[in-house]
Specification:
Layout: H1 4-12, E1 19-25, E2 32-38, E3 42-50, H2 58-64, E4 66-70, E5 76-80, E6 88-96, E7 108-113, E8 129-130, E9 137-140, E10 148-153, E11 159-165, E12 171-173, E13 180-187, E14 192-199
């Protein structure tokens, strides 16, 4: 029989849910799509605010944000409307795994700027990270010789590396980082894509 103290210990050991492959695509003058893949079934709470506004907490997103039911490992697309042209926003997301003891992921945030006619967007299908999994050194393919700002963070959201890459300098060295899953945010100043890299 498990006593109360043991139950508390088990609850504290619950691993929070995780979102992967977060990206902002189809950015237009007043609309954009948020793409995200949850690692568990649950409810995704989200909000899109002006970049200058104060970031919400997980609790505030659950209380005041929009919500969408999501399925484990199935990419979800959230369509955002009513945005202003050529304006910087931040999309905030938190995942609730829906178990009886509420367990929330960290708050994920991704910046993007709505565009003016003629601006070029990143295409998630044309951005490739290889090899993946990696032992520490990997490449990010770049089309049309464009420069991209790369920001890599761990599952807690801590930034571990930042670099500007292009078609001739697209190698990332993470030999000094611990094994695990990292989010790779790729930004061309106009649109943002987030992918994941596994270090083993």
């Amino acid at each position: 029989m498990t006593d109360a103290s043991e139950e508390i210990t088990l609850t504290n050991e619950i691993i929070p849910p995780v979102c992967t492959d977060i990206s902002i695509t189809n950015i237009a003058q007043t609309t954009a799509d948020v793409l995200v893949t949850p690692t568990t079934d649950g409810t995704l709470y989200y909000s899109v605010l002006l970049e200058s506004e104060t970031a919400p907490t997980a609790a505030e997103l659950v209380t005041d944000g929009n919500s969408e039911n999501v399925t484990a490992d199935l990419p979800a697309t959230i369509s955002i409307t009513g945005l202003e042209e050529n304006t910087s926003y931040t999309a905030y997301l938190v995942l609730d795994d829906g178990v009886s003891v509420k367990t929330l992921s960290i708050v994920y945030d991704t910046d993007f700027t709505t565009i003016e006619t003629g601006f070029k967007q990143l295409n998630t299908n044309n951005i490739d990270i290889f090899p993946n999994p990696s032992k520490g050194v990997f490449n990010i393919n770049v089309e049309n010789s464009q420069e991209l700002n790369v920001t890599i963070s761990d599952v807690t959201g801590k930034i571990v590396l930042q670099k500007i890459i292009n078609s001739t300098d697209n190698q990332i060295n993470m030999n000094n980082q611990t094994k695990g899953i990292y989010n790779v945010q790729i930004n061309n100043g106009n649109s943002i894509i987030t992918k994941k890299i596994i270090l083993n």
